[in-house]
């Protein structure tokens, strides 16, 4: 249900349940969290979250599985799902989503959990949970408003409507456009460009961005300063300066 591929310094986590359009089951959520933990502790410098389903990125929770669940079953599933979404959100490396086709419910939330979203022209986003008596709770209510603003997030969440590629770009849900069928290749190319940089600096920059965003400016600048100090005392900083002065590509030690 989840495949892990390596492309040099890029780890690709593939949602691989095509027969169900990558609907998120309990077992799939457990596996995703485990794979993310493996990637977090690896030497990967950047991550791509992609889909092996031909017409979908992810269509959200597996409602067929939920149809037979009791209330107690649903409550037991909840921390498993939170762990899966949190595992993507808290990966220490920069993460690029490669989206095509339907990214609905949890699919949109997985994209929102990534740092950058690449989408092709077939991409359709939406958070339709209110239509089945729930709310987006894989981070959707919080991550969407941080991306597009509270009013636009309210529009999408309260109506549950789907938005196609053009509107998704206009809203700011998509960071880079790809030709149809090229979302994965475009995302891998972007991730490779990111991974050419210092792994210490990349992780520090992500911490500064993520941890500083909800704070006031003074506190956020302290977060930035702490992240800078991590890089300043690293072997990567010393190698980066040496490589620049010697006019060669750096060989990052990653510490």
Could you explain how this protein is built, in words?
This protein is α/β, with parallel strands linked by helices. It folds into two domains: 194 residues, 2-enoyl-CoA Hydratase, Chain A, domain 1 (Alpha-Beta Complex), CATH 3.90.226.10; 47 residues. 50% of the residues lie in helices and 16% in strands. The protein is built from eleven helices and ten strands. The strands form two sheets. The protein has a six-stranded mixed β-sheet with strand order 1-2-3-5-7-10, with helices on both faces. α3 runs parallel beside α4, α5 crosses α6 and α9 runs antiparallel to α10. The two termini are 33 Å apart. The model has no long low-confidence stretch (mean pLDDT 97). Keywords: Lipid metabolism, Lyase. Pfam families: ECH_1 (PF00378). Belongs to the enoyl-CoA hydratase/isomerase family.
> Radius of gyration from the CA trace?
19 Å
State the CATH class of the largest domain.
Alpha Beta
Structural class: alpha/beta
Flag low-confidence runs: none
What oligomeric state do these chains adopt?
Answer: single chain
**CATH superfamily annotation of the largest domain:** 2-enoyl-CoA Hydratase, Chain A, domain 1
Pfam families: ECH_1
InterPro entries: ClpP/crotonase-like_dom_sf, Enoyl-CoA_hyd/isom_CS, Enoyl-CoA_hydra/iso, Enoyl-CoA_hydra_C
Family: Belongs to the enoyl-CoA hydratase/isomerase family.
Organism: Actinocorallia libanotica
């Amino acid at each position: 249900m989840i495949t892990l591929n390596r492309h040099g310094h890029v780890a690709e986590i593939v949602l691989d349940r095509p027969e169900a359009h990558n609907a998120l089951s309990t077992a799939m959520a457990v596996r995703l969290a485990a794979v993310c933990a493996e990637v977090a502790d690896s030497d990967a410098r950047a991550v791509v979250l992609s889909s092996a389903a031909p017409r979908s990125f992810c269509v959200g929770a597996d409602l067929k599985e939920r149809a037979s669940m009791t209330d107690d079953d649903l409550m037991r599933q909840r921390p498993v799902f939170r762990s899966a979404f949190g595992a993507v959100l808290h990966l220490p490396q920069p993460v690029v989503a490669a989206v095509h086709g339907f990214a609905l419910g949890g699919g949109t939330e997985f994209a929102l959990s990534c740092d950058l979203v690449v989408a092709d022209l077939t991409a359709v986003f939406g958070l339709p949970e209110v239509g089945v008596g729930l709310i987006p709770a894989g981070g959707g209510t919080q991550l969407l408003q941080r991306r597009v603003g509270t009013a636009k997030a309210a529009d999408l969440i309260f109506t549950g409507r789907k938005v196609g590629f053009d509107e998704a770009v206009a809203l700011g849900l998509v960071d880079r456009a790809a030709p149809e069928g090229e979302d994965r290749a475009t995302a891998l190319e972007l991730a490779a460009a990111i991974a050419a940089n210092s792994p210490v600096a990349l992780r520090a920059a992500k911490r500064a961005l993520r941890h500083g965003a909800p704070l006031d400016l003074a506190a956020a600048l302290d977060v930035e300063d702490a992240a800078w100090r991590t890089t300043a005392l690293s072997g990567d900083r010393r190698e980066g300066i040496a490589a620049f002065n010697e006019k060669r590509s750096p060989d990052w030690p990653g510490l």
